[in-house]
Amino acid sequence: MRILVIGAGRTGAKVIRQLQKNPDISIVTADPRNELFAVEQGIIHSVDIREVLTPLTLELVLEKAQPDLVLLAMPTEDMGLGAPPGMEILAEALREELAALSRVPVIEVARGGP
Questions:
Q1: Helices (H), the chain
Q2: Mean pLDDT of 81-92
Q3: Which of 4, 36, 49, 113 lies at a CB distance of 3.0 to 4.6 Å from 8, suitable for a disulfide?
Q4: How do residues 40-63 score in pLDDT, each as one tens digit?
């Protein structure tokens, strides 16, 4: 199985660490940011795709990754959208639109504790 993990921050790092336990899972990572927790911690060497994920770029990212499943592991504060009032609503709408447009299953991973 090939899984695209979107987000290589703290949440994404936890997801990647768990997926790495199964050698039959091929992990592809996507995150446009320069400083990534998963890279800093040595969990991954680098991200595979450095594309900002939007409804307009979703097809390109899916074409590059060829995943069987997409895990959204990037909380709102890591999406680079800022923190003005209503941003959580915008980010939620973006996540829902991405899930609706995707031809493969998209699951949002909630940010957990330490």
A1: 10-19, 37-40, 58-65, 87-101
A2: 66
A3: 36
A4: 999 999 999 998 877 788 889 999
Q: Residue 71: is its pLDDT beyond 80?
A: yes
The encoded tokens of residue 64 equal 């590059």
Residue 69 CA to residue 90 CA, distance in Å, equals 23
The letter for the amino acid at 5 is: V
- Do strands 2-6 and 106-108 pair parallel, antiparallel, or not at all (unpaired)? unpaired
Average pLDDT over residues 63-72: 95
Q: DSSP code of 111? A: P
pLDDT of 48? 98
Class of domain 2-108: alpha beta
For residue 46, give both structure tokens. Answer: 């680098």
pLDDT at position 11: 93
Cα angle, residue 16 at apex, residues 13 and 18 outer, rounded to 5°: 110
Burial 87-112 (b: 16+ CB within 10 A, else e): eeeebeebbeebeeebeeebebbebe
